[in-house]
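RECORD TYPE: inverse folding
INPUT: structure tokens
STRUCTURE:
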């Protein structure tokens, strides 16, 4: 379903909606993530699939996410040329469905997409227009694809948000250039090696050489200093875990039951 053109040519003149079910675990990457290899050959036991819409990577598995596809033809009143505001109604639909489950306090992000290395790499590490937050943490991801006939929206909420398996997959298989804990960026230039100072002059008995810049008095500065966007290895999972939430956390049910409840609530919301 990620590769097909949906809806079919004879079904694109009116609104369409479908609940999608995953049949096998897979790493789903965005259309613009060219630094990650898509392959039909299993990588670490998973297929790596490139979807037709943008955004970051998502790890999916049977029964572990609620996945809703929506289609709006161009003549429809819900269609907007603005790619930011055009997604707001999708978030409102999710928010309404959450209310049917008794989940309060859901808000729709109505700003631009997050910037930074982690939001580019992982869908649930950043925010985009029309995505839903509960308690300040992202619940639903959203991406869209447009053509001359209309707009196709992918939206998904995870049964449980667990960044560790996704991080381990990216690191272990070296699928992404930006998977290391400290990706180098122009904002984080390399710190020069420790310059000589009058307090520590060079002596004949202990000549300093370029091969041995580190001394006990002057520990070597890492090439990639820790920043909020690129947390240290020990804190990466914790930092990313706080950015999103899963349906099981909101409903008090196990992920599979929570996913089923969310699907039923979305269908009810679509019929309202």
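DESIGNED SEQUENCE:
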């Amino acid at each position: 379903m990620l590769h097909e053109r949906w809806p079919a040519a004879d079904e694109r003149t009116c609104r369409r909606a479908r609940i999608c079910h995953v049949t096998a675990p897979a790493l789903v990457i965005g259309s613009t993530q060219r630094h990650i290899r898509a392959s039909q050959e299993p990588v670490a036991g998973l297929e790596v699939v490139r979807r037709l819409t943008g955004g970051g990577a998502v790890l999916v598995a049977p029964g572990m996410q609620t996945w809703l596809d929506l289609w709006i033809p161009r003549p429809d009143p819900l269609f907007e040329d603005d790619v930011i505001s055009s997604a707001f109604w999708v978030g409102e639909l999710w928010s309404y469905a959450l209310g049917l489950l008794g989940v309060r306090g859901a808000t729709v992000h109505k700003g631009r997409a997050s910037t930074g290395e982690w939001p580019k790499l992982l869908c649930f590490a950043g925010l985009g227009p029309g995505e839903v937050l509960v308690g300040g943490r992202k619940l639903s991801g959203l991406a869209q694809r447009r053509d001359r006939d209309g707009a196709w929206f992918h939206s998904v909420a995870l049964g449980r948000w667990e960044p560790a398996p996704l991080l381990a997959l990216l690191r272990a298989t070296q699928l992404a250039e930006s998977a290391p804990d400290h990706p180098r960026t122009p904002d984080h230039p390399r710190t020069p090696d420790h310059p000589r100072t009058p307090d520590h002059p060079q002596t004949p008995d202990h000549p300093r050489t370029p091969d041995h810049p580190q001394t006990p008095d002057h520990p070597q500065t890492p090439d990639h200093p820790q920043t909020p966007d690129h947390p240290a290895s020990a804190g990466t999972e914790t930092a990313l875990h706080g950015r999103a939430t899963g349906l099981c956390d909101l409903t008090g049910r196990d992920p599979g039951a929570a996913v089923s409840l969310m699907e039923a609530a979305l269908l009810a919301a679509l019929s309202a």
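NOTES: Residues 255-271 form the longest helix (17 residues).
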